[in-house]
Every structure is written in C-alpha cells, then in structure tokens.
Amino acid sequence: MRIFITGATGFIGRALTLRLLGGGHEVVAWVRSAARAASLLGSDVELVAASGGDQALSGEVARADAVINLAGEPVLGGRWSASRREALSRSRIGLTTSIADAIGRAGKRPAVLVSASAVGYYGDRGAEVVDENSPGGSDFLAGLCRDWEQAAQRAAQAGVRVFIPRIGVVLGLDGGALAQMLPPFQFGAGGPIGNGRQYMPWIHLFDLVELIATALEDPRYAGPAIAAAPYPVTSREFAHTLGRVAHRPSFLPVPAVALRVIFGDGASVLTSGQRVNPARLKELGFRWRFETLEAALGNILTEDDPVIEALGTGSPKPANPENSGYLEKNRPGFVLRHATRVDAPLAQVFAFFSKPQNLGVMTPADMRFQIVGPVPGQIAQGAGVEYTLRVGPIPLHWRTHIEAYQPERLFIDSQERGPYRSWWHEHYFQAEDGATLMEDRVYFAPPFGILGALASHVVVMPALRRIFRFRAQAMRLRFPGAATSASSNKGAG
Description:
Blueprint: E1 2-6, H1 11-22, E2 26-31, H2 34-41, E3 46-49, H3 53-63, E4 66-69, H4 82-105, E5 112-115, E6 117-118, E7 129-130, H5 140-153, E8 161-167, E9 169-172, H6 176-186, E10 199-200, E11 202-204, H7 205-217, E12 223-227, E13 233-234, H8 235-246, H9 256-263, H10 268-271, E14 275-276, H11 279-284, H12 293-301, E15 307-310, H13 326-329, E16 334-342, H14 346-353, E17 370-372, E18 384-391, E19 394-406, E20 410-417, E21 422-432, E22 435-445, H15 449-456, H16 460-478
Parallel strand pairs: 1-2, 1-4, 2-3, 4-5, 5-8, 6-8, 7-14, 8-12, 9-11
Antiparallel strand pairs: 10-13, 15-16, 16-22, 17-18, 18-19, 19-20, 20-21, 21-22
Helix pairs in contact: 1-7, 1-16, 3-4, 4-5, 8-12
C-alpha cells in the first residue's frame, strides 16, 4: 500500500513508519523540515513539505491507498494559555479537517483514514469503568478530542472507512511519557503523581504500532476504539512497578500543587485519569503483546541490554583485517558487546546498514543526529561520515572512518574526530536459518583520563546502553518477520 502519514517524525510516527516499511508498504510523510525528517526516518521514506499547503496535501491524499493522521502539538508542551489552547486545537482539528476535506474532493479516494484521538475524550472519571459506549467528558481536553474525532469522521461522509484509536499513555524507549517519568526514578526521587489514586490507561508502543498496521488492512476496524492495554493501573501502582523494574525507590509523590504551578490547567492531564476497558479491541480479537505493565516496562528498560566491561585478558581481541595502526595510537579501556537477531535475510539487513542515511533511524530522536557535509551513497572501505549529535545538553561533532568493509560479513569504523580517546566499532553479520545475527563489539576509552573513566559510569555507559537497546528495537520494527506481519491480528477471535 502507498500510505500517507502526518506526524511521522513524532514518537509514535517514527516507530510506525519503521513498522510499515517492514511490512512492505510505501510510506510518504508530510513534514515541516525535510532535513530533520530525513535524519529521523532514513532513506526509504518519501518526504513531502508541509509548506506546499492544501494543494500538495490534496495531491498526496489522492495518490494514497491509506492515510494515517498522528500530527498534533504536545499536550504538555506548556501552560494552557489562550494561545496554547488555540495551538493545540489548530494542530489537531485544523489539519484533520483539511485531510478529511481533501479526501472528499479526491477523484480516487484512500480506502481508510486512521486518525488519532486520546482517552482524554472521557474526561476525569475516577474509578468508573469506561468503554467505547461511555459518554465523553466536559473539560477542555475532552472537548478537544471530541472535535478532533468529528473532524476525522467527515471523511466517512465520502465513503471512506475511518478508524479512530483513543490512545492511552504510550510507553516506549525513545520518548513519550516514560522519558519524562524515568529521570526522577533514576535519581531515587520517583513516586506517584498527586494522590496516586487516578487511573493511567497505558499501551506499549509496539502494541499501538501493530494496532494501526492491523487497522489499515482489516475492514472490521472502523469508528472509535480504546487503544490501551487490557489492565489499567493507578498512578501509585504504576510508580511502584516502574521502581521495581528499574530497581529504584518509588515512594516520593509529585504534589499536585507543584504540577499546577508548572502546567496550570494542563496539570489535569496528569492528576486526572480514566479506568478504561478496551472492549472493541477485545471484540475484534486484537492480541496484545504486552498485556501487563510489568512485562511492558521490562521489555523497554531491561531487554536487549549490551554488556560493557573493562578490557582484560579474557576479553575478545579486536579484529584488524587491514592492519590499521589506530588501536596502537588510541588504546581502548573498555569493550561493549551486543547481539541482536533480526528476522530478515542477511542481504537485506546488510544493505540497510550500508546506507549512511539510515544511521539516524537507529539513533534516539533526542540525540538530534544529523549528517553534515557530503554523504557517501554507501559505506565502503576508506569512506568517511561526519555528523553532529547531542548527549543530554552537550553537542558533539563526530567523524567516522571506515577501517574495513567486507560485504555481508563485517565492517569496522573508528572515530577520526569526536569525544572519545578511542572508538573502534566492529559490526558482524551472519546468516542464521533465514534470519540475520548481528553482533557489535565496541572498543573505547572515554575522554579526560581517570576522571573521564569515573564519569563514564554515570553518563557514557548509560547512554551507550540506551542507544544499543533502541537500535535493537528499531531493527525489529524495520524487519518484523512473518510473526508480526500486518495481518498478524487479522481475523483473530
């Protein structure tokens, strides 16, 4: 299918784009910045500039087999002033109306429009159980969701199937609510929000992505459906589970009054809740991969973790097929090892890694990866790639040199310019029963001698672990294999 998507560079959209490409679909993204989008989405996505306005939008809608609308300003992006409320409404209702009107005008119309909404549709419902048949709430966010959904339903008047997932709190490695919740826990200051009694309807990013991919092809998915896991938890239960999985204390609550000072009326997003029952998805037979919060957080925070240790006599020796002198001049002190099995043939996986344009796809968005200067069409021995990125607030400039390149087996890159005293990265690829086993060995030394080595345990190594966990999960979305194809939930139940 040719799929036109708004919000592709966001937390959900980026993961969904990988999943759709992995399902063999052609993806066209509506973007504000082509350069930023190219870094985040890679070389396999067609980019259309939003500056083209309604004419460009109408043209792409008419060419699409399906449209996915995820765009919208972050709800917690600031205090809900009058201008902020207007921006929240305009970014959702205005664009959704334009899409629905473009569908109505199109000579050839897409088969389906998937347009996001949120569980905020129900307002603050305390311990009351709500499902798709429950009435909406009366606060600002509930009204925003209602108007958002009504704008999308205009496409149904043109005979197009419209599916509206009312999305809960989305949990994933690369952003969303967890990125804001986790830092206090990591410093031992985590706990429930407010009194902790409000319910938090949540869903793992992978399940949400699979839901949308399923809805594209299964005609039973129409109208609104609660996009949340079947077992909601209270804020207190969420905090305790997060603390247990992360091995951190979870007893310091975040006072509601402090949130109101920061967010104003917007604090209600955090202090109110909905005890949802995703009745429609159960009826359709949708299969959640992560039904419980503990399983979801365990996957996000602990799976795919690399091993990092000081170099010693038992450590694997670096490969050096081209007899480079780099390691003699730049002696490493640590080695990172990481293995990932990807359900795709070796040739496909190696070709993906051989394109420098895909480096950003495998990097967390908040690191702001951006290639600068000339971009080689393909990685090859002797090639160089220069890029910028951030680790927290620190901007870094990096130049990589390809030391060795053996197609469908190995390539090695070293740091020519960058923050490390030594960086030697070996990428191994091996076919295994129709899949690909990828192994990374990174030999490195942090900057600033002994002081840098001590600081690396606080800053460098956690960042490396996160990057390699993210890359493993991104690769599984990009190459999902037969077990998670777009039809994996089709006809279930």
